Amino acid sequence: xxxxxxxxxLLLGSGGxxxxxxxxxxxxxxxxxxxxxxxxxAIAAWAQNVALDPTDPAAVVSAAKDLHAKLVFIGPExxxxxxxxxxxxxxGIPVFGPDRKGAQLEASKAYSKxxxxxxxxxxxxxxxxxxxxxxxxxxxxxxxxxxxxxxxxAAGKGVVICKDTNQAxxxxxxxxxxxxxxxxxxxxxxxxxxxxxxxxxxxxLDGKTYKLLPYARDHKRLKDHDEGPNTGGMGACAPVAVDGxxxxxxxxxxxxILAGLRADGIDYRGVLYVxxxxxxxxxxxxxxxxxxxxxxxxxxxxxxxxDLITLALACAEGKLSETExxxxxxxxxxxxxxxxxxxAAPLTGRAVSGLESVKDALVFHAGTKKTEAGWxxxxxxxxxxxxxGADLTEARRKAYAAVxxxxxxxxxxxxxxxxxxxxxx
Length: 425
Fold this sequence. Notes:
By secondary structure, this protein is an alpha+beta fold. The chain is built from 13 helices and 22 strands.
């Protein structure tokens, strides 16, 4: 296989995950040209932005042909759910990302739980509801705490851990009747709460086999000590150590997932994020995401030794078994800097200062734009401050040293990402 600059890549997306992907793709010796649709001001440092709707299959296919792309790399979940990968494959264009049927594992919590149930994949007991009265009757009878999940895509904010019945009843009303999650909340999954530390497993799949990237841990709660509301992610660290028995248990679950995909006729080619919770009864699956996690991508990609273009093409072409997934030594910590009011009602338009003084860390932009006056905030999650170190302690120290140099009004961040307490949650 040629290792020269022979591949033009079209990257779909505009967030912090896509900034990290653009950064990693730009380091490939195989990269000829990199385009991003729609991209961002930050991504423009590595790619040429293309103005198009990444959820429009026809527009993406047309752009890929016009740009002579040899690989389309889909970053976020919305294009996958819209069938963009299906349209690209039908046009003969290699694409990293599952088809619409595979993307349902993330796009619908009810579909996902049904998939796990049918294929005996360990997960929490659950019920699915489309009628609010039936949902309220059920939560009044269920053991607390319990977890209520909006069925559809909700940008990481559609999950509520309910510790009392009034909170559960209120969540049902807010989601199903008041439209707090839009159409995503019209169907609810209510499941038993499981206890234990979480583990993010990102697996590359080519339709036949899988290979795991370094394990990561995402910190979803807004505040230290895992308090406050769930968010899209307040930081991540990698790698997370896994012993032999746990690895064997994870391999067993992954084998069931792969067999289930085959049995259901899903030719899954891309990355499958499996969110595990490590209970006293063994690892159980909390959720699937059909793309790189955000902010897990920011913590895992800097540790990836292997060439990302080669791996993505191997997945797209069904040749993953012919490639190696290598990791760099050391550890990586990503700390999310979020806007005031996040996650419920983030305040934006705040000037960001201090970025130019960060020398010993990477800063991935999730919600910013560049103006004549400099960088300003545009979203809830603003920046992912990411550092590598010989071990987790060093990576954490370097990340937080960089955080101290950055400022915008109302800036929120956790102080325990990658810490001993956070790692045990």
